[in-house]
Amino acid sequence: MSFKNVEIKTRANIYHEGRVTSRSFITPEGEMKTLGIMLPGTYRFSTEAAERMDITQGHCRVKLAGSGAWSDYQAGESFTVPGNSQFEIEVDDLLDYVCHFD
Length: 102
Prior knowledge:
The protein has strands at 7-8, 13-15, 20-26, 32-38, 41-47, 51-57, 59-64, 71-74, 78-81, 85-91, 95-101. It is mostly beta strands. Strands 1, 2, 3, 4, 6, 9 and 11 form a 7-stranded antiparallel beta sheet that branches. It has a 4-stranded antiparallel beta sheet with strand order 5-10-7-8, with no helix packed on it. The chain starts with 6 loop residues before the first strand and ends with a strand.
């Protein structure tokens, strides 16, 4: 996966005491995305807009709000989270991802 002619925001998005970081960028079509890294751990995130997370390296388990079940995802797979919601993510090894916002 690659992106060309993007505007990169140089200020990092830092979460969970630096264990999750990302950089925002905007495509020529005006789409907002982030490239991120998660270190091993379990994290909870809230969403404003709907988002899709593409896993580009590693493996994780995800539990969406209202769901009692955890689902596994690995490199090459994606999951979606509704807007105005939350999810938990459990990471065992370094996880790289691309997050797409609606």
